[in-house]
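Protein Record: Sequence and Backbone Structure Tokens
======================================================
Scope: a single protein chain, as residues and as a discrete description of its fold.
Tokens: labelled as protein backbone structure tokens, with as many entries as the chain has residues.
Position: the record begins directly beneath this header, with no further notes in between.
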Amino acid sequence: MARLYVGRWSSHPMALARSGCQVLPWDPTPARLRKNPVTANLWLCFSIALVAFAWLCVPAFGQTDVNDVHITPREVEKPPEPPKPELLATTTGLSAHVRPLKVDVDLVLVPVTITDPMNRLVTGLDKENFQLYEGNSSQEIRSFSSEDAPVSLGVIFDSSGSMSSKMDRAKDAVIEFFKTANPQDEFFMITFSDEPETVSDFTSSVDEIQNKLVFAVPRHRTALLDAIYMGVSKMRQAKFAKKALLIISDGGDNHSRYTEGEIKSLVKEADVMIYAIGIYDRYASAMEERLGPQLLSDITELTGGRAFTIDNPNDLGDVATKIGVELRNQYVLGYRPSKVVRDGKWRKIKVKLLPPKGLPPLRVYARTGYYAPQQ
């Protein structure tokens, strides 16, 4: 009995015949369609196309590259690298290999200005020419310096309506004041009328301050005490230990929320020297204008600064220059209190001068005290 092989049209009939197989062509057309030649031919074409498509596509789907891996290998967790020594931190956030910085809060620094009877600066004195007292107790001066250290400076500029006739001269005075500045100094400026406004944040650019000053326009009333409060608060952002404010105003306060007593208490503990240039009319009619010179004098003396009173706006530039030079020619005395009591109370300071022989009577300007720490 002959063996039967039913294959595709593309099989090799000669090879099959030699093997003894009988080749029968496969006709996929159903018997019911063979009676209609047209339908049968269409069906036959469709079947041939289907078989050809399967012949071409099946090998493509069937073959697989040996490098085609369908199983994702399990990732091996690497042991964590030990942190670098400089990145180790304690619970306090300090580097483990660096000792915490200890600040000596018991050292009291006292800036001192010395002038002669003609209000001129006196320089060249030594440590032995000074005596320091806290209360009635003499204190040992442990540090002494007269170097020109960088300063954080703030200008508090009166732009109230009464400054109309003096505004240009006052702006020139600010420019003259900044001419005495050092490249390392930093500055900010506050203008005030009904309320204070920061017109320039801390900067080392004198030009920036001058450009902002151009837009100061005189108007409204005078909130001087509020402006001092803002200036002292702003000094908390200062980066230098030596801090000073310069006030330029033409009268007393008539529009502040803070009282004179509150501002005096504030400047006592602020460690900020305050200087002032008061431009007053000789025949002031308003009560606050008549009290203005005394107000500025009381506030500045508490801080170791001083107030200059002028009645001629033309003198503004010279006085501003004088203050700038004075700030850079001060003596700084440092001492540790012999009795440290952390009670937060006011400690009174007195600086006495032992001048060399042959000098005229000299005047001492220094801060009058400080608040002791509470803990």
